């Protein structure tokens, strides 16, 4: 009768479960996409990714399929999987969906009253946004911008809306990251978020929803304007600094 070996003290014996490893790889790839390390249109090669993340192809394959489901990657027959390139129709649909969810969240928050914790979180996001604008760091601008909006949806208390919105926010980063290199000063972006915060704190429903619509409309116009010259696939940034994969309007 064979005895099972106790490998608890053996170096390297503790292995990360396959499903957990796939989740880790998913997070790492997502972070690089959202930080601009894998620009839109970048092919996602299983072998290269497995080497990069020091794992087998199985977890990488599962990670890629998860990110396709999240909308960050797209699979094309005979071409494989690549980072999604947002079309004008994609941008229209993305901001239409975001506006619908955020309007619903704001209506609930106005009815209930915004908590002190939410106001504090939004104030912090605006400060981070202002600092990023001051330093002309567009990746951090987009992260702080979207963080502001994610806080609003989370505070509404709907788990399903939050899950949907986080996916939409991540996809928005694909578009916002295209603005890197086109920065010309965006104090207006800070002002718009300060106005949204003020209207929410005061409970001005009509003013808040009207300002939100204008805010999203302006963002969509900016993305449309810059999309053509900025949409060329760039080389991945070797030293891209990952940010929260689910953050960033």
From TrEMBL:
Q: Which residues are in the HTH gntR-type domain?
A: 19-86
Positions in coiled-coil regions: none
Xref: SUPFAM superfamilies: GntR ligand-binding domain-like, Winged helix' DNA-binding domain
Compositional bias of kind Low complexity? 231-249
* Keywords tagged on the record: DNA-binding, Transcription, Transcription regulation
Q: Which GO terms describe its molecular function?
A: DNA binding; DNA-binding transcription factor activity
- What name goes with this protein? GntR family transcriptional regulator
Which organism is this entry from?
Streptomyces radicis
Q: What is the lineage of its organism?
A: Bacteria, Bacillati, Actinomycetota, Actinomycetes, Kitasatosporales
